[in-house]
Amino acid sequence: MNAQSLSADTKHYTSDEMMTVAAARLLWSGCVCFVGIGIPSAAANLARLTHAKGIVLIYESGAIGTNPSVLPLSIGDGELAETATAVVSLPEVFAYWLQAGRIDVGFLGAAQIDRFGNLNTTVIGDYSKPRTRLPGAGGAPDIAHHAKQTFVVLKQSLRTFVEKLDFRTTAGFLNGHGERALHHIPGAGPTVVITDLGILRPAPDSEELTLMARYEDVSVDKIRAATGWPLAVADTIEVIPPPNADDLRVLRDLHERTRMAHEAPVLSSNEKSSTAPIPSHSHVQA
Amino acid sequence: MQLGSLQEVITEYVRDGQSVALEGFTHLIPFAAGHEILRQKKRDLHLIRMTPDVIYDQLIGAGCVRELTFSWGGNPGVGSLYRLRDAVENDWPRPLVIHEHSHAGMAAAYAAGAARLPFGILHGYVGTDLARVNSQVREVRCPYTNARIATVPAINPDVTILHAQAADRQGNVLIQGIVAGQKEAALAARTLIITVEEIVDCLTTSMNAIVLPHWVVTAIAHVPVGACPSYAHRYYARDNAFYLAWDEIARDRDTFNSWIARHILETRDHAQFLDSLREAA
To answer: Which neighbouring-strand residues pair with A59?
Structure first.
């Protein structure tokens, strides 16, 4: 199915689209959201383009209040700076904005999560001799420490929902039962985890992630089978409505614009002019 | 401030065994300078950067690097750096010692370095394994409240290399757009080398733009399109297609080696490198 016909078909959707839409619905206009790259960025921008037009998006590269027309491939794309209210340095964004407690929602992905919402983005296997070396922490530990709450979005499987993390890159509720608060960590931690199967939230006392909601076509048994520990399940499971036609159209348009923007080569044999400097602030070329 | 060719500047100021920060956060990454370091086959470098990306992948895969201090090592929006992974996972082409931080930790370390303080402080690292694997992450008690605060030792690179939009004839350097930790990395360094898109008679900028005064700059080389395939705001866009293509090139040792041979070792300078990319396109 090509992009055009998929875009027109709003009855069918992928589990990635469902996850992105479900995550976007949790954001609100006026929310100050510190955004990670990937699905968090897609969901936050979908929210901005649909029901949460007044959301403030902050990327760790220093772009504050940014309104990109395409999703950034990297967290420092020029598009983020061009469309931002302010562009500040990275030490400033982490110290004056994040650490100072000005962020409502930190929005993260991860490679592994455990039952208390701790995250691993560092290694699979032993740290000193890893089977797979992952990119590492970035700003995730800082975001999860300071944001008033953290939203985590990742696909749910036995590979990602593990009994024991190979490495704890980012603190969630540690071992639960109030341990996070004992350490005087200011943010409330991962208050919601959105997956391609459903939505989990921490239980009030144990802080163990508990299945609260599922998508229409996903059974609770399927979600249990995709979890690497005996999953706690709420007494009543909410069924999350499917994406509406407007959500799907906006999300697919966004992805299509993004794909076209990222595939356009900058350097090519017949477009040398595209790399020529365009002096904008200086009078004299050397 | 000395004005020279990139080849001269790298020959004179970058030596085997030094700590070198080629900073840049997606924007203004000094690719041309990194390629020249690779061409000159510098060895045993301790590379420093918050977000080592494709240029560090190239230097690591080519065997120039002994140690890496960083906070996020991936191909942004694409995935792994396969040469970094091969070094960490398989010691190829040589073992790599890593010192790992979070972004806020490394930002605090650069800021302390710029201020010539012994360490930086932050609220962070609590409950993470990063402090367990990086013995440099420690803590102090606040002398006023007795609260625990994480510390990171200052980062003071032997050499920091930045790419900037412009310099004037005196050597004052303008950087604008996404500036991340460039100013801190510049002022933390013992030697500061800058490559620039253009050299102008007079910088006309808003008074709050980042200008590094000529008397903190060691040397400048004029290298147009010197950040490519990264970007220089208001000059040229990021070559996202190259970053996507790098995923395939770097996966395999042989493909990587032939790419390095053709595009770096067999080119004389950055202009020839850009020509070689156009020919391959």
So the answer is: A35
Distance CA A200, CA A211 (A): 4
Record: contact A265-B281, CB cut-off 8 A: yes
Q: Minimal Cα–Cα distance from B263 to chain A, Å?
A: 14
Per-residue model confidence as pLDDT tens digits over A120-130: 999 999 999 99
Q: Which of the 8 DSSP states describes residue A95?
A: I
For the question of residue A271 being annotated catalytic, the response is: no
Confidence of residue B208 (pLDDT cuts 50, 70, 90): confident
* Structural domain includes residue A41: yes
**Domain total in chain A:** 1
Q: Which residues of chain A have pLDDT under 50?
A: 1-4, 268-286
Judge whether A7 lies within some domain. Answer: no
Domain ranges for chain B: 2-41+156-276
- Within a domain: residue A285? no
Distance from CA of residue B96 to its chain's centroid?
A: 17
State the CATH class of domain B2-41+156-276.
alpha beta
The confidence score (pLDDT) of residue A285 equals 31
The question of ipTM being above 0.90 is answered as yes
Predicted model pTM: 0.94
Q: Which chain B residues are closer than 8 Å to A285 by Cβ?
A: 198, 200
Nearest residue, CB atoms, A89 vs list B128, B180, B241: B180
Nearest CA in chain A to B83: A133
List, for residues A152-164, the tens digit of each pLDDT value.
999 999 999 999 9
Give per-residue pLDDT as tens, B120-159. 999 999 999 999 999 999 999 999 999 999 999 999 999 9
In chain B, what residues touch A77 (CB-CB under 8 Å)? Answer: 26, 238
Q: Which domain holds residue A137?
A: 12-259
Q: How many CB atoms lie within 10 A of CB A272?
A: 12
Chain A partners within 8 Å of B110 (Cβ):
91
Task: Tell whether A184 is within 8 A of chain B (Cβ).
Answer: yes
